[in-house]
Specification:
This protein is an alpha/beta fold. Helices cover about 30% and strands about 25% of the residues. Strands 1, 2, 3, 4, 5, 6, 7, 8, 9, 10, 11 and 12 form a twelve-stranded mixed beta sheet that branches. β5, α6 and β6 form a beta-alpha-beta unit. α1 crosses α5 and α3 packs parallel to α5. The radius of gyration is 18 Å and the shape is globular. The two termini are about 30 Å apart. About 40% of the residues are buried.
Length: about 260
């Protein structure tokens, strides 16, 4: 029988996305779903487009968005990020986080509902030329794998010396190649945490994203100083990921937000 924490996590998912007894049970869906999972937060621009919200001071806050980020991490067998994100977030790690009971809820959901007992593998896609090897991502219980090209691998090996740094040297060091590598290694669910310059490659044909968890700040137009780069327009996302459930609307710390899941199949 699932613990109270696992049940509470499922109920929170249902409260957000399961629209009544005739609608899909989002928590039950997640037990069976696998593939490439992209999680991102965006804001609206004056011309009706979407821009990814830049990480840093002044970014609109949302406790629900933070919960969803950690839910995606809890679902993952591997989490892919980039050297750029490590530079902008010197303390980032992929351990389950949250406020109050959320870490215990998410850990129980991963272990009991999804049957995943090992921590997800962290992978950092980078050119390798200016990667901070002192970053905590490389010094935890399960240090991150570095995915890079031939030149970057040589530079990292020279800098690392005798340090135990795991490197995947790829002929084509891009996000699609990393995802393909992890799938070959048996990772069923791969969570992508990357900026638009990197992640949009997965939306080109043939599309490599199976599910998008999208948080949208709806309070006002996203200020230019908080824009990390243009994301795909909403109509393009719906064409590429035609299976989508209800949109959840919430008043968060920074005003109005909406939250949705879009799936390819």
């Amino acid at each position: 029988m699932p613990s109270a924490d696992a049940i509470a996590c499922e109920e929170r998912i249902r409260a957000l996305w399961s629209s009544g007894c005739s609608g899909p049970d989002a928590a039950l869906e997640m037990r069976a779903l696998a593939g490439v999972l992209h999680v991102t937060a965006v804001g609206r621009t004056g011309d009706g487009g979407l821009d990814v919200i830049a990480i840093g001071p002044g970014a609109p806050a949302s406790s629900t968005d933070f919960f969803l980020l950690n839910l995606c991490r809890a679902r993952a067998d591997a989490i892919v990020t980039t050297g750029r994100i490590l530079r902008s977030e010197p303390d980032v790690h992929h351990g389950v986080q949250g406020t109050g009971d959320e870490p215990a809820m998410l850990a129980a959901f991963r272990r009991e509902t999804l049957g995943k007992t090992r921590a997800p593998r962290s992978v950092v896609l980078t050119s390798g030329l200016d990667l901070d090897l002192a970053h905590p991502m490389f010094h935890g219980a399960r240090p991150a794998l570095v995915a890079t090209g031939t030149r970057g691998a040589a530079a990292l090996r020279a800098r690392a010396g005798e340090a135990d740094l795991e490197i995947a040297e790829l002929p084509r060091p891009d996000l699609r190649a990393v995802v393909e590598m992890l799938a070959r290694e048996g990772c069923g669910t791969i969570c992508v945490e990357a900026g638009p310059a990197t992640s949009l490659d997965l939306y080109r044909e043939p599309i490599a994203v199976d599910e998008l968890v999208l948080s949208t700040w709806e309070e006002r137009v996203l200020p230019r100083g908080l824009r990390a780069g243009r994301f795909l327009p909403g109509q393009d996302l719906e064409a590429l990921l035609p299976r989508h459930g209800p949109v959840a609307e919430r008043i968060e710390e920074s005003g109005r937000w909406s939250f949705r899941r879009l799936r390819r199949r």
